[in-house]
Amino acid sequence: MAKILTLTLNPALDLTVRLARLEPGAVNRSETMLTHAAGKGVNVAQVLADLGHDVSVGGFLGDANPQAFDALIARRGFGDAFVRVPGETRSNIKIAEQDGRVTDINAPGPQVSDEAQKALLKRIAMIGPQFDAVVVAGSLPRGVSPQWFQGLLQQLKDLGLKVALDTSGEALRAGLQAGPWLVKPNTEELAEALEGSTDAISRLHQHGVEHVVVSDGAAGVTWYRPG
After folding, report:
1. With left for phi above 0 and alpha for psi between -120 and 50, is residue 39 left, alpha or beta?
2. On the CB side of 15, how many CA atoms lie within 13 Å of its CA?
3. What distance, in Å, lies between the first and last C-alpha atoms of the chain?
4. Residue 159, SS3?
5. Are 28 and 122 in contact (CB under 8 A)?
């Protein structure tokens, strides 16, 4: 099995509230409430570990409320490559109703300083060569620019790592410029990043993206490879 690093630059504590029906403007009583450490890269790490891979997790983590992440890292036996930053890791609230409707309220996350960004790049330079691949997933926290993000992906590539990218918006647009090994947008994210190009997949292959995995809701997932 492979040795894989996942990077979640903007992780979250997911608070899931289940109730019969949300009544806006009224007092609502939940049936259950569950909090767990999450974020796209953290979630991917757990799946990879379940498949038997040797996984480390990294990114930026608020030093004011790390307990859920520390517990998860210890329980799953992950390598810990997170850089701690001042403040709290954001909390995302999911309100799940009995009819299947889910309302998401996502917080912005802590401000990440230039020093913390330099610390993460230094840590990756030190540990990167020991991995076979890296998954970079999720949104950018405050203080992290798309240009810095592109440089991060380029550094990972320069270390000889296969880079799998799952993000959206400006981060996806910048990340594509680095030519990652694999990208996993949905149809809307891909159209936005490439400004509605009719030959989006070909353009990505020409820019060095070997695998393009596009999700389309209930229609499923399509995997594109050159040739």
Report:
1. left
2. 9
3. 27
4. coil
5. no
The rounded distance, in Å, linking the Cα atoms of 39 and 45 is: 10
Q: What is the pLDDT of residues 135-174, one digit of tens each?
A: 999 999 999 999 999 999 999 999 999 999 999 999 999 9
Report the number of secondary-structure helices (H) and strands (E) in the chain. Answer: 7, 12
Is 215 exposed, middle or buried (CB count within 10 Å of its CB: 0-12, 13-18, 19+)? middle
Are the C-beta atoms of 69 and 46 separated by less than 8 Å? no
CA distances from residue 9 to 38, 41, 112 in whole angstroms, order as listed: 12, 8, 9
Q: Which two tokens stand for residue 219?
A: 């229609």
Segment 66-101, tens digit of pLDDT = 999 999 999 999 999 999 999 999 999 999 999 999
